[in-house]
Model the fold of this input.
Amino acid sequence: QVQLVESGGGLVQAGGSLRLSCAASGSIFRFNVMGWYRQAPGKQRELVATFTWGGSTVYADSVKGRFTISKDNAKNTVYLQMNSLKPEDTAVYYCNVVRWVPREDYWGQGTQVTVSS
Done:
């Protein structure tokens, strides 16, 4: 069992920046996919950015060029640097890690990001 704890959310003006952190209670080496999702009020949860096995990254079109995902294996932490924030980025952001075999899938509790115009 792995616990994920997100932090770094808050209220920021449009154009500002935030860095989200996702600290895992154990090693993240065994996970094949690590990333961030978000859910805005009244909308479905959507992918923001992920690391896939082998080190490749995937970004939602809406955040390309503005958000950067990174990780620190020594600290068992995944980060999401968010720049040039827009009001439409307002959502609860969730950290997720997945192992394919055997199947493991963990979510954090979420951190609120609010961008004012």
The two ends are 40 Å apart (CA to CA). The CA atoms of residues 25 and 40 lie 27 Å apart. The longest strand covers residues 91-99.
